[in-house]
Structure formats: C-alpha cells, structure tokens
Write a structure and sequence with these properties.
single chain, PepSY domain-containing protein, Nuclear Transport Factor 2, Chain: A, globular, about 90 residues, about 30% helix
C-alpha cells in the first residue's frame, strides 16, 4: 500500500513540474490571418537572436534559440500580431 501511495505522489509531482513548463495560451486565428513565419524569423535575427528551432505550438509560433547575449531562450508569439505571449530564459 505504501508503494502505491509513493507512486501516486511521484506522478502528481511530475504533473505539477510539467505544468510549470506548459505552453503559452495564444488566441486562435484562421490560417489566412497568420503573419508569415519569415517575417518573424527576419525580425528576430535583426534583433540579434539565433534561431535553432522554429515551430508551431498550438496557436503560437515558438522559437528556441539564443538572444544577443548568447543565452538560451524559448519564446512564444501570437500568430497574427507577432506579439510575445511568453518568454522563458533557459539554463545553458
């Protein structure tokens, strides 16, 4: 019985840990209203960012890369306005 209780606590702990890294909540738009991916990529590179990975995550554009100081970042953008919805500095 103790093993089951510890297992449940361990799973609950994992779920809570994953909630901290949950994706951003972005507004949904019809695809024809999305800003071009290249527009965002070019703007980020002009600001000194290096993009390692660019993807669509739910209703957000998401990039993984490095900022102009060389620090790892994960940033979520609104697909229509390209406004930053959530930004996370990652440990190297």
């Amino acid at each position: 019985m103790k093993t089951l209780s510890y297992s449940i606590l361990w799973v609950v702990g994992l779920l809570n840990a994953n909630a901290a890294f949950a994706a951003a909540e972005c507004k949904s738009y019809p695809k024809e209203e999305w800003a071009a991916e290249d527009t965002l990529k070019e703007a980020m590179q002009a600001e000194g960012y290096t993009i390692k990975k660019f993807k669509i995550d739910g209703n957000c554009y998401e990039i993984y890369g490095r900022n102009k100081e060389g620090k790892k970042v994960e940033i979520y953008f609104d697909m229509k306005t390209l406004a930053i919805v959530k930004a996370i500095g990652l440990k190297d």
